[in-house]
Amino acid sequence: MLDKSNSIDLETFINRDGKFGDKFVWQSDARKRVVNLMRQAWELAMEAKGLALVESGGRRVYYVPPKLTGGRGAFVPFVDVDGRTRKKALNGRSDKRKANWNYGVGLVPSLDEPWHMELRPTIIFTDDNDQPFEIARAQRLRLSFCRNWWNDRWRTFLRAFLALIAGGQTSIQLAVGSGRFLVVEASPMIFTSPAGLTDGPPTVDADVADEDDSDAVWDTDADGEIDDQGDVA
Fold it and tell me: In this structure, is residue 230 part of a structural domain?
């Protein structure tokens, strides 16, 4: 069993050069160590929750396999930015492209104010054995399959993903050892821009759980219930 030999306040550790025990630690090295700890804690938590891992574009991406959502194309409920309850599929199937798709994220921890974890989204394509496609084919599929996906769709993907891994809680706890945790809010940071591209009302994705979507345009591969991009039809 390991015993604690030294301790230091985290904010002090990452914001100035200084001694830690009998060792001198530069501020830049301290920040790198903490960022690495954040990354390890995130990855261990994602593995424990049952997410699948793939290397994509030089990043470690954790994506949502069907077993985690109760089946491919199953819906995940979440609360959207307007306070309404919606539901979103975080994986699905495109018969047209003979591919399965899965929402995933890569993590970029940041100690800039405010401290945060940036989740960079992507879509991971897999075959019928749930094995990821090779990089070139996956990239071609992203360029075609996701070409009409805009901010509202990516926002709802992110919110549904966070709701899933938070398990209905308002925060996500990432264990860092000795009974200590990093606590991450289960809702994205919200920013308000003083200017926009339109004066119209904010848009939301089409997969609303409690409103009529009969005017929505669905993919031609739709089976009458769910289209291959994860929306309610």
Answer: no
